[in-house]
Amino acid sequence: MMTDDMTLLRDYARGSSEAAFATLVSRHVKLSDYQGKIVVLEAYRSVGCPYCEAHYRTGAMQALQSEATNHGAVWLLINFDSPRVGETPTRAKQEWADRKMAVTDYIIDTDGSRIGRKYAFKCAPSAVVIAQDGTVAYQGAVDAIAATTLNLEQDRATVGTTTFHVPFAELLSGNHVRAAVQALLAGKRPPVTHTMSYGCPLTNIYQ
Prior knowledge:
CATH superfamily: Glutaredoxin
Structural class: alpha+beta
Strand order of the largest sheet: 5-4-3-7-8
CATH class: Alpha Beta
Number of strands: 12
Order of helices and strands: HEEEHHEHEEEEEEEHHE
Number of domains: 1
């Protein structure tokens, strides 16, 4: 994503926060409902994405969600699975429980019309972090590891055909979303405001 896209994201966050969307918990939610709070938007796919699977199977994403929400942040998970997968509220609620997701709410946005295209999500997993004043503070990859498999017992990750040592603690300490949330909680600008996202492409929301 280029700088112009980041400008569009910031302008959208400032000016279009009244756009309402449905979630699994609330019938209608507006981002302005969370004014004064940090909001994390997580792009997610529940079917066939090894990158999302790696984060959730190990518990790394749930730990990140818990840390953020325990400090008062709002975490909105957005499922961008293709319509052919047949994601339903019932199935999503079961997955929320089974994976022990520590999110504030869950949004199904299979065609990207609710929030996906407006925030220019390209891949899952990825994230947008919105500051307390409603501006976009960070957009991009969740972390810099880009792993498709993680083995916490052996502290190893696999990217492509390469396996390397990566302690679980490093997944959190080197996490861009965590760094952005911590900075905003301290009243500071995130050390990194934009990175190139990686993962499973969300081509279905741009068709």
